[in-house]
Amino acid sequence: MKKCLRLFIAALGGLTIGSALANPHRLDDSMSHTVPPNVQMQWLPMARTPSSAAGMEAWVTVNIRIDTRDWVGRSGRIYMVLPRDEASPIEAVWTTQGRLQPGRLVSGERTLVYAGTIRGATLEDQFQVHLRAQADWQSQTRRLNFHFEFDAD
User: Fold this and answer.
1) Is residue 2 part of a domain?
2) So what's the pLDDT on residue 145?
């Protein structure tokens, strides 16, 4: 029993050390832009059942252009990040043209969009993003500060 417990603690310690070694590098995506540049959130249609979630939504196209020149030839993972802010959470769900991975992200999280070797000075794709917010959305304007991080292997 003690041997099993020691192995479990050692394995758990290895996970903690592995997490501590992750050193994300923020990537320059300043050439990325949305189409249109500003998006108006719309109320979701009236719910048919009381258990259906009310809220707001919007669709936006994002032309992604990430500067990866400092990482050419390096292997690792790129994550899209949406920091948490003081407003209610936002959910983003997107499809891509295939260079990056489609996915889902909620405020305060990051999600994998690329894994492998960086092959060129830029990484480009186009996202079709569906944004959803809860019914407690109270702001007339809100800036969503998505960004990308690289974790080298």
Assistant:
1) no
2) 85
